[in-house]
């Protein structure tokens, strides 16, 4: 039987891997709309029901009656009250691109990283025992099977079960939990696997419940009668515990890192809450429906010293229903594994964003832009943290010995994360809440929780000596962990929760009232509290000091070159500019900061931009906006806002256009004198030499042919100039006829390279021929003309001693992208705007008339593509975008 | 949003929608009261505790009632807004 169990478990794990893999593939292809359905969202919330609740609910019912229901009624309250809290948190999470609960709290309190670190540590301390509990539930349930089968464990004992489960979970989480850097993006694979596990654990419990009620008892009324006869027919209702546990479970439902991960970070669509608000309560109702019947069956069947936590397995096993027992085992296994996976992802995001990245930033000597690929570092940190968190859970299990002490850790862990609640809820409803208050409250609550509940839970003399337990710290009676301030006789959990939460809240409020928030906090506070109003344009950066190119370089290192360039280009377009370098308006910096925050968290992102832009600051206007209610109402008058923005945009466009016109006009004047000069010089020499030829009688033959040659050469120069002008005017007036045909890009480049061989230059070419093998429908000659022009330009202008031109081809969804990258010094910032204009020349070194790039641009726009200069890449980079087909 | 522009009289359907939001806000409090009703039983009972069977039946029935209410409210609130002059339908988060 054990062999079958192992095989079934392994097959189940393999199926999970396959499902996750398949879901990732579907999502990558943009298919699988059901992956984003509210149903999957609701099911993913079920990681609330862990192995502890799967087995423990029955145990709790057998020990204490209906108290276990409070653990499910709490979340029900949160969900049916979603209009109050969840809606706001989810909206804030999406608006601010929140990556974890630590990120949310730190983001609210002025992106303070110290708060993020404190929250992260609290979360790790609170959740690690819980992970240990899950591993224990798997190894305990495996042990139960061993005992019942009577087989000797040959290759697996309970410790090694926990070990292998931990290893498997770490691998799964690393593979599917760190696929994308942007923690804000959904982990489709993980979420789908979790949803499947949710169905499995529910099906297992319900199947077992149906078996117990209809097969063992013989019907509902018989079951009811049995409850009346059972050992738990009278429920010792304890109002304090009932209240505490309901509050705890509701608080934990919001504040547990794993719940925050699936509920807020992985949320695809706010409207999924509509469905979850009733569907998740149904889920937990079904989970708890059969708990009491199973518990009373166990109490009847087994001696009183049997572990009621394992009734879910022992009841079917003792009836000889091995298949059913195995199904129950898989259900418990699902519950345990899904919790560990999501908790590890959530904790690793916090650890990498708030602990590893800040340390790395501090050591990287203020030079984000040259410090290598940040993405790899973040991903590595995240993977390392996942391994670390799971290992920590495993060692906790080993060290604590996995006894009964561990079983009670579930509620203790809930009480630990519930300490985050005042800072979090206060932050979204109270604008005056500030970081001193939050930090003080968090530390107070955490300390009291650790002293009165967590540390004593290891038993006397384990961490706290029994003298401290009995006589208080330093022998002070009023500091006894179980009877703070001399109030004894309370239930330990209730006692700890009462003091920790109430003092946490009190300190949070009082310190917030006494201290003063910094401007950034006030802005963030307004944004969080009033998230449903028009978004306040919280401009936290002063304009102009940031160098756009540096920002682009940094951004490329974090979110990837393609994505970064796209982002900058879009912003430039929005500002009415062409190219990749938008103005560094405060709005743009805000957008950029949020975009980066999706990858590395708000605090780190803020710090990184601050490195480049300089001190972050808030203008007087912004302060007015926060402080003055009247100013705010003015601000909110949306019409005015829209108009101002419109005007600002128009003004920017006008300035831009004006500058360009002035530049062109200057260039044009220069060119006209140039053209007259160019025309007059050959004309003068043609006239002079033809006069000589005509009037001088006795010219030597060699001199005659020399003069004729000069005249010929000058005519060719004139013709070329006129040809170029003609070509351009034809293109501009749209009279050109393009002859489309299907041709190979590699062949076109070959042709262009061959045509430029005459150029007297040392320019070396580097190409990647296999990537050029793309078929496009275009005008071969015209495209080739563009490429020739770009190669010739590189040969002329590249100022490196050993000039090198790299042609790289990349296929994107918009078409084929050909980059011409040279190793020279590039085009200067002021010239970038005008190089594509007619008559413009970057330097005076060349002999051209400055028409080449203008012609290229006209050709590319006629071909339905584009040509652009990509800044901030080192050398000069021209990017040609060729559409794949004619349309 | 500026308070001056807030309309005082709403058309019928907008009015209904707002009351549905009020109901959605009140529902958790109703649920809370229901979930604590067993606490009242103990006062009248002389035994050490209360009947587990009655409490179980009551709590599950209350639970189901809350879920049903929540279902209908969610469905009503989710339905797309009929195009009417309710300029704050999207933003009236806390009116």
Chain-wise SSE layout:
The complex is a heterodimer of chains A (887) and B (95).
Chain A: H1 2-28, H2 38-45, H3 51-64, H4 68-80, H5 86-95, H6 101-108, H7 113-149, H8 158-177, H9 188-217, H10 220-229, E1 234-235, H11 239-255, H12 257-265, H13 272-289, H14 291-301, H15 311-318, H16 322-363, H17 374-400, H18 404-407, H19 409-418, H20 421-429, H21 435-454, H22 466-471, E2 479-480, E3 483-484, H23 492-514, H24 519-529, H25 548-559, H26 561-574, H27 586-600, H28 602-613, H29 620-627, H30 629-636, H31 638-695, H32 701-732, E4 741-744, H33 745-755, E5 764-767, E6 775-778, H34 780-797, E7 804-812, E8 815-822, H35 829-832, H36 852-862, E9 866-869, E10 877-882
Parallel strand pairs in A: 5-7
Antiparallel strand pairs in A: 2-3, 4-6, 7-8, 8-10, 9-10
Chain B: H1 12-35, H2 37-44, E1 50-51, H3 52-78
Structure characterization notes:
The complex is a heterodimer of chains A (887) and B (95). With 887 residues, chain A is mostly helical. Chain A has 3 domains: 2-395, Sodium/glucose cotransporter, CATH 1.20.1730; 641-732, Signal transduction histidine kinase, dimerisation/phosphotransfer (DHp) domain (Helix Hairpins, Orthogonal Bundle); 741-882, 2-Layer Sandwich (Heat Shock Protein 90), CATH 3.30.565.10. Chain A is built from 36 helices and 10 strands. In chain A, helix 1 crosses helix 9, helix 4 runs antiparallel to helix 13 (272-289) and helix 7 packs antiparallel against helix 19. Chain A is elongated, with a radius of gyration of 36 Å. Chain B is mostly helical and 95 residues long. Chain B has 3 helices and 1 strand; from the N terminus they run H-H-E-H. The radius of gyration of chain B is 20 Å and the shape is elongated. Chains A and B meet through helix 4, helix 10, strand 1, helix 11 and helix 13 of A and helix 1, helix 2, strand 1 and helix 3 of B. Strand 1 (234-235) of chain A pairs antiparallel with strand 1 of chain B, so a sheet runs across the interface.
């Amino acid at each position: 039987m054990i062999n079958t169990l192992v095989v079934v478990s392994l097959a189940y794990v393999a199926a999970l891997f396959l499902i996750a893999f398949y879901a990732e593939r579907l999502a990558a292809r943009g298919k699988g709309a059901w992956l984003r359905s509210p149903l999957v969202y609701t099911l993913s919330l079920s990681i609330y029901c862990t192995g502890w609740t799967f087995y423990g609910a029955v145990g709790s019912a057998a020990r204490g009656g209906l108290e276990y229901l409070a653990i499910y009624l709490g979340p029900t309250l949160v969900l049916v009250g979603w209009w109050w809290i969840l809606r706001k948190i989810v909206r804030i999470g999406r608006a601010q691109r929140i990556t974890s609960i630590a990120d949310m709290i730190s983001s609210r309190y002025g992106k303070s990283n110290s708060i993020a670190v404190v929250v992260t540590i609290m979360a790790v301390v609170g959740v690690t025992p819980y992970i240990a509990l899950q591993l224990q539930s798997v190894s305990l349930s495996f042990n139960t099977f061993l005992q019942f089968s009577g087989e000797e464990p040959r290759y697996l004992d309970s410790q090694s079960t926990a070990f292998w489960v931990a290893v498997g979970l770490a691998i799964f989480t690393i593979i599917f939990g760190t696929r994308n850097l942007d923690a804000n993006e959904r982990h489709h694979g993980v979420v789908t696997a979790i949803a499947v596990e949710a169905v499995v654990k529910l099906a297992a419990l319900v199947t077992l419940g149906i078996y117990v009620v209809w097969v063992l008892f013989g019907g509902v009324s018989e079951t009811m009668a049995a409850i009346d006869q059972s050992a738990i027919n009278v429920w010792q209702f304890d109002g304090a515990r009932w209240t505490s546990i309901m509050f705890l479970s509701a608080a934990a439902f919001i504040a547990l890192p794993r719940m925050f991960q699936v509920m807020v970070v992985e949320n695809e669509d706010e409207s999924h809450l509509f469905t979850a608000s009733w569907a998740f309560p149904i889920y937990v109702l079904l989970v708890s429906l059969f708990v009491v019947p199973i518990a009373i069956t166990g109490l009847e069947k087994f001696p009183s010293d049997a572990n009621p936590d394992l009734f879910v397995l022992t009841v079917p096993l003792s009836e000889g229903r091995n298949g059913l027992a195995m199904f129950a085992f898989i259900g418990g296994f699902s519950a345990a594994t899904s919790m560990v996976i999501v908790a590890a992802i959530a904790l690793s995001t916090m650890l990498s964003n708030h602990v590893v990245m800040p340390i790395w930033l501090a050591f990287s000597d203020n030079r984000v832009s040259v410090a290598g690929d940040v993405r790899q570092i973040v991903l590595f940190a995240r993977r390392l943290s996942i391994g670390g968190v799971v290992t920590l859970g495993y060692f906790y299990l080993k060290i604590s010995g996995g006894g009964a002490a561990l079983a009670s850790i579930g509620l203790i862990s809930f009480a630990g994360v519930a300490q985050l609640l005042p800072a979090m809820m206060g932050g979204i409803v109270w604008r005056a809440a500030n970081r001193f208050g939050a930090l003080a409250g968090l530390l107070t609550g955490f300390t009291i929780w650790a002293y009165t509940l967590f540390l004593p839970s290891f038993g006397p003399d384990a961490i706290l000596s029994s003298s401290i337990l009995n006589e208080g710290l330093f022998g002070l009676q009023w500091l006894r962990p179980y009877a703070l301030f001399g109030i004894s006789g309370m239930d330990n959990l209730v006692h700890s929760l009462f003091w920790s939460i109430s003092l946490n809240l009190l300190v949070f409020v009082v310190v917030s009232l006494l201290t003063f928030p910094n401007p950034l906090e006030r802005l963030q506070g307004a944004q969080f509290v009033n998230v449903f109003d028009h978004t306040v344009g919280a401009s936290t950066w002063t304009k102009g000091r940031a160098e756009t190119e540096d920002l682009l370089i940094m951004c490329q290192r974090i979110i990837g070159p393609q994505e970064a360039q796209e982002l900058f280009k879009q912003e430039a377009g929005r500002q009415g500019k062409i190219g990749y370098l938008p103005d560094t308006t405060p709005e743009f910096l805000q957008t950029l900061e949020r975009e980066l925050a999706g990858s590395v968290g708000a605090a780190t992102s803020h710090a990184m931009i601050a490195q480049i832009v300089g001190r972050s600051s808030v203008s007087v206007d912004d302060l007015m906006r926060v402080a003055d209610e009247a100013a705010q109402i003015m601000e909110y008058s949306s019409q005015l806002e829209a108009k101002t923005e419109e005007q600002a945009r128009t003004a920017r466009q006008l300035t831009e256009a004006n500058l360009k016109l002035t530049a062109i006009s200057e260039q044009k004047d220069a060119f006209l004198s140039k053209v007259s000069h160019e025309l007059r010089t050959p004309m003068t020499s043609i006239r002079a030499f033809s006069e000589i030829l005509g009037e001088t009688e006795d010219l030597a033959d060699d001199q005659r042919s020399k003069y004729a040659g000069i005249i010929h050469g000058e005519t060719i120069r004139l013709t070329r100039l006129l040809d170029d002008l003609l070509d351009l005017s034809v293109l501009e007036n749209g009279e050109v006829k393009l002859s489309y045909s299907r041709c190979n890009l590699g062949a076109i480049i070959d042709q262009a390279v061959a045509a430029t061989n005459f150029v007297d230059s040392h320019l070396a070419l580097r190409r990647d021929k296999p990537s050029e093998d793309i078929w496009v429908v275009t005008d071969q000659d015209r495209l080739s003309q563009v490429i020739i022009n770009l190669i010739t330009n590189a040969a002329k202008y590249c100022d490196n001693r050993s000039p090198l031109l790299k042609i790289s081809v990349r296929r994107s969804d918009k078409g084929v992208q050909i980059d011409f990258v040279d190793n020279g010094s590039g085009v200067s910032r002021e010239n970038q705007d005008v190089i594509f204009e007619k008559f413009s020349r970057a330097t005076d070194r060349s002999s051209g008339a400055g028409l080449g790039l203008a012609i290229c641009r006209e050709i590319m726009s006629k071909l339905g593509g584009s040509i652009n200069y990509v800044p901030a890449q080192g050398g000069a980079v021209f990017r040609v975008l060729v559409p794949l087909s004619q349309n | 949003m500026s308070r001056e522009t807030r309309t005082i009289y709403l058309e019928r359907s907008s009015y209904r929608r707002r009351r549905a939001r009020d109901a959605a806000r009140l529902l958790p409090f109703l649920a809370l009261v229901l979930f604590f009703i067993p606490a009242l039983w103990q006062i009248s009972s002389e035994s050490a505790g209360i009947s587990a069977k009655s409490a179980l039946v009551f709590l599950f029935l209350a639970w189901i009632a809350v879920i049903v209410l929540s279902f209908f409210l969610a469905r009503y609130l989710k339905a797309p807004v009929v195009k009417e002059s309710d300029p704050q339908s999207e933003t009236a988060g806390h009116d």
